[in-house]
Write a structure and sequence with these properties.
Helix content is about 30%, strand content about 30%. It has three helices and seven strands; from the N terminus they run H-H-E-E-E-E-H-E-E-E. Strand 5 and strand 6 form a beta hairpin.
């Protein structure tokens, strides 16, 4: 037989579990990140790669990522979830990446962020040459 104390304890436990589930669901609601601007991209790169000077910066046309050149490295910001991740790859790899239909696809070779897709009007940048470090 089920007594009254057991029913009260079971009901209280069910309510507590329901409250915990509601809090967990509410906490996972993603807040979309605002589109990147040049200034915000520079600030994020400075936070992620302190001491690295940016030779040139390109922000995606949709504001969902950015690519910067720093010497022989390409620094990549790409949107993942409700924030951005930063990775670095060799500059030559960034130049050789697939560009089709206005989207640059970068292989980051990272299990947490394996690929980055950035929307640019053209790639590689117009007027780019190996001899000009400013580009």
């Amino acid at each position: 037989m089920i007594d009254r104390a057991y029913l009260i304890q079971t009901a209280g436990s069910a309510v507590a579990v329901g409250v915990l589930i509601a809090i967990a669901a509410w906490a996972k609601i993603a807040k979309p990140a605002p589109p990147l601007s040049d200034a915000r991209a520079r600030a994020l790169f400075a936070d992620e790669f302190p001491g690295k000077a940016l030779d040139r910066l390109w922000v995606a046309v949709d504001g969902r990522g950015a690519l910067a050149r720093s010497g022989a490295s390409a620094l990549v910001l790409c949107e993942v979830g409700d924030g951005y991740v930063a990775r670095h790859i060799p500059w030559g790899q960034a130049l050789a990446s697939t560009f089709k239909d206005g989207v640059l696809r970068l292989d980051l070779a990272d299990i947490a962020a394996p690929k980055a897709t950035l929307a640019f009007e053209t790639w590689p940048p117009a007027g780019w040459s190996d001899a000009d470090p400013a580009l």
